[in-house]
Amino acid sequence: MSVLAEALGTIWPERSSPDGPLPPLLLLLTVVTGLVDAASFLNLGHVFVANMTGNVVFLGFAIAGASGLSIAASLVALAAFLVGGTAGGRIANRLPVHRGKLVRAGLAIQLAAVGVALVVAASGGDPTASARRYALIALLAFAMGIQNATVRRLAVPELTTTVLTMTLTGVASDSVIAGGKGSRIGRRSLAVAAMFVGALIGALLALKVDTAATLAAATGLLAVTAVVAHRVSNTDAEWVR
Predict the structure, then answer these.
(1) What is the DSSP letter of 226?
(2) Coil, strand, or helix at residue 171?
(3) Which of 32, 28, 48 has the alpha carbon at shortest distance from 40?
(4) Which residue among 35, 59, 65, 159 is least packed, with the fewest CB closer than 10 Å?
(5) Mean of per-residue pLDDT scores for the chain
(6) Candidate from 33-42, 136-145, 180-189, 198-207 with smallest mean pLDDT
(7) Span of 31-35, 37-41, 166-170, 221-225 with lowest mean pLDDT
(8) For residues 121 and 216, what is the distance between their CA atoms, to the nearest angstrom?
(9) Which of 122-126, 138-142, 233-237 has the lowest mean pLDDT?
(10) What are the extents of the domains in the chain?
(11) Neighbour tally for 51: CB within 10 Å
């Protein structure tokens, strides 16, 4: 399969695709990841709400005394993410055989959490100067924990929505140059591009406008994704299994 055909098949999958409409939905969630991590890192004090690898590293730096980092913020993000992951796991275990209903349920809870975070961010004042900072971190990290648990259970190849390290490793190590059978660069490059676009737009909104603007974009995109997921989930097509 050519790079272009693979990319088009990811954006607009055929009806017979083993993952049905899930790939484009997961690309939208990858954009959401870039948006919320831009808001948290740039406006909530150098902490991630989706990239937990970064938070573990930041926690080590903060304990060592690095300036500009917060032990409390990293711990809150990690704890809330784990709570979200647990909730997402419970949802997945109750809907183990229907991927359409699973993504619909996960998105509904994630949308609610990010929507509440938007309300908190829009309530006025500098979010880093009050307890609202930790409320925002907790809400967003919880939402991303839900997303990660749901996506993990969906198990769509190359579309994890948050982790790009293995995606980029696959591009290189599976390439023909490396002696592999093919890097699947068509799909993997879309995942990287989606994260980049989300981070870029999120950063522009966070720096030029405010936190609420970034979260409004994330909420809107999640709402669109949730509506589409709802429409496609009421099926017994092969991809739901």
Answers:
(1) H
(2) helix
(3) 48
(4) 65
(5) 92
(6) 180-189
(7) 166-170
(8) 10
(9) 122-126
(10) 3-233
(11) 24
H-run or E-run covering 191: helix 185-208
**43-91 pLDDT per residue, tens:** 998 999 999 999 999 999 999 999 999 999 999 999 999 999 999 999 9
Q: Is the pLDDT confidence value at 130 over 90?
A: no
Contacts of 27 (CB under 8 A, 6+ apart): 10, 11, 159, 190, 191, 194
Cβ 30 vs Cβ 161: under 8 Å:
yes
Q: Is the pLDDT of residue 1 over 70?
A: no
Angstrom distance (rounded) from CA 20 to CA 238 = 8
Long-range contacts of range 207-211, CB-CB < 8 Å, 24 or more positions apart? 207/42, 210/43, 210/121, 211/39, 211/43, 211/44, 211/121, 211/127, 211/136
**d(C-alpha 98, C-alpha 88), whole Å:** 15
Query: Cβ(40)–Cβ(47) under 8 Å?
Result: yes
Asked if the model's pLDDT at residue 180 lies above 70, the reply is: no
- List the structure tokens of 121: 């961010």
The predicted model gives 144-156 an average pLDDT of: 96
Measured distance CA(98)–CA(105) in Å, rounded: 11
Are residues 24 and 13 in contact, defined by beta-carbon separation less than 8 angstroms?
yes
Position 94, amino acid: R
